[in-house]
Automatic annotation (TrEMBL):
Belongs to the AAA ATPase family. RarA/MGS1/WRNIP1 subfamily. Signal peptide: none annotated. PANTHER family: ATPASE WRNIP1 (PTHR13779:SF7), WERNER HELICASE-INTERACTING PROTEIN 1 FAMILY MEMBER (PTHR13779). This is Replication-associated recombination protein A. The keyword ATP-binding applies. Residues 77-192 form the AAA+ ATPase domain. The lineage of its organism: Bacteria, Bacillati, Actinomycetota, Actinomycetes, Mycobacteriales. It comes from the Bacteria. Pfam families: AAA, AAA_assoc_2, MgsA_C. Gene3D superfamilies: 1.10.8.60, 1.20.272.10, DNA polymerase III clamp loader subunits, C-terminal domain, P-loop containing nucleotide triphosphate hydrolases. Keywords: ATP-binding, Nucleotide-binding.
Length: 477
């Protein structure tokens, strides 16, 4: 069964570079030290699991010389780690490589199926091995799904290094992992693979004997489409390649190899048409322009179409989020002040949970902004004020507003005569605030749309009081 984003429900829960070997209810240790065993009938994503550090793509920020993760993989580090990042970025693979490099036994548990009993069982097994001089790497997938009690069951074993814990999560561990376990582990954030990383991975799978053994060639547009479909997820990329290559080879029959894998075959195999979208070309600018103009024009359906188009094409979700935040002030502003809150929350969600789940937050923000009342008063007000400043209309700050917190300020007249608004029951009183040259200038011109209708009436009252045209005393709220 597929979820909203086209991923198989349950499969994306395995969060390593490729498929995670999941134990049954009782822990199922792999035999012997080193990486997980792979057979020739395993999926392409499993067969192409990196066997050495040199085969790992991406994560160079964590694998540079002397970096903690590299030291662990090379067997010279001894710290437990929490690997935090999107699906398909290498968490399971790195755990397996750590085990192989150090000669430790490798035990894999999934928080989806294991409980306290299973955790304690693996720890007891590791304790017995340690007495015999053999150490154990315990890999826990989806550790954020463990309850506090289950996570607490790991503490003593991690503290005393009975196990070297390598835990994987797609959630920010600061919110999903108990503090004592966090303090005993290195937290390393993995990043989505770049398009170049994905292309390198696909090319290796195409030529390697563990993969397709050179039986296919991949057309340029087909490769581009596979890279976009992957959205930074290696497992997704290799699964799509395997499906498309299988279809191409079946169609070719006994024809001479290599067979050309074209875009049409990829589209038919993965049931997802290529979106004509160049992230560095005209389409990039045309689609984002249409997206913002659809929101400004309050066409929620068109806005969702362009959002879907960008996401399907693999547009950087952070770019979309930034545009939503800008639009919330530029085209909505005080007509609905909550629009900026929603857009900012969506941008934070992109950073916090990543893709594909963050798509929902982007969609929610798009719907909020598209259906909100519109006002350009914020950008117009700031533009008018900046135009005056640029034209030289920036007179002296009135003396009563200047800083008076230093010796001699009073002699200069600074802060003398300043009236403190909170001393008045209404919290507002007559007083000059702008330079002399700008007294009476109105930059902010609220509309009558949405919440700005009430703000307009309030601004009129405030200006009248501050400028001495009306006495304070009327209700302002």
């Amino acid at each position: 069964m597929s979820d909203l984003f086209g991923s198989e429900v349950g499969e994306d829960e395995s969060d390593g570079l490729f498929e995670t070997v999941r134990p049954e209810v009782e822990p199922a240790p792999t035999s012997g030290p080193g990486p997980l065993a792979v057979n020739s009938h395993a999926p392409l994503a499993v067969r192409m699991r990196p066997r050495t550090l040199g085969e790992v793509v991406g994560q160079q920020h964590l694998l540079g010389p002397g970096a903690p993760l590299r030291r662990l993989v090379e067997g010279s580090g001894a710290a437990s780690v929490l690997l935090y990042g999107p699906p398909g970025t290498g968490k399971t693979t790195l755990a397996s490589l750590i085990s192989g490099a150090t000669g430790r036994r490798f035990e894999a548990l999934s928080a989806l199926s294991a409980g306290v009993k299973e955790v304690r069982g693996v720890i007891e097994l590791a304790r017995r091995r340690l007495l015999a001089g053999e150490q154990t790497v315990l890999f826990i997938d989806e550790v954020h799904r463990f309850s506090k009690t289950q996570q607490d069951a790991l503490l003593a074993a991690v503290e005393n290094r009975i196990v070297l814990l390598v835990a994987a999560t797609t959630e920010n561990p600061s919110f999903s992992v108990v503090s004592p376990l966090l303090s005993r582990s290195l937290v390393l954030q993995l990043q989505s693979l770049t398009p170049d990383d994905i292309e390198d991975l696909l090319e290796r799978a195409r030529t390697d004997e563990r993969g397709l053994g050179g039986e296919i060639e991949i057309a340029g547009d087909a490769m581009d489409h596979l890279v976009r479909l992957a959205a930074g997820d290696a497992r997704r990329a290799l699964t799509a390649l395997e499906a498309a290559a299988g279809a191409a080879l079946d169609q070719a029959g006994d024809a001479e190899r290599p067979i050309l894998l074209d875009l049409a075959t990829v589209e038919a195999s993965v049931d997802k048409a290529a979106v004509r979208y160049d992230r560095d070309g005209d389409q990039h600018y045309d689609v984002i322009s249409a997206f913002i103009k659809s929101i400004r024009g309050s066409d929620v359906d068109a806005a969702l179409h362009y959002l879907a188009r960008m996401l399907t094409a693999g547009e950087d979700p952070r770019f979309i989020a930034r545009r939503l935040v800008v639009h919330a002030s530029e085209d909505i502003g005080m007509a609905d002040p909550t629009a900026l809150q929603t857009a900012t929350a969506a941008a934070q969600a992109v950073q916090l949970i990543g893709m594909p789940e963050a798509r929902l937050a982007l969609a929610q923000a798009t719907i909020h902004l598209a259906t909100a009342p519109k006002s350009g008063a914020v950008i117009a007000a700031l533009g008018a004020a900046m135009a005056d400043v640029a034209a030289g209309n920036a007179g002296l700050v009135p003396a009563h507003l200047r800083d008076g917190h230093y010796a001699g300020a009073a002699k200069l007249g600074n802060a003398v005569g300043y009236r403190y608004p909170h001393d008045h029951p209404d919290g507002v009183l007559p007083q000059q605030y702008p330079p002399d040259e700008l007294v009476g200038v109105d930059y902010y011109q609220p509309t009558t749309h949405g919440g700005e209708r009430d703000i307009a009436a309030r601004v009129d009252k405030l200006r009248a009081i501050v400028r001495g045209k009306t006495r304070p005393g009327g209700r302002l709220s």
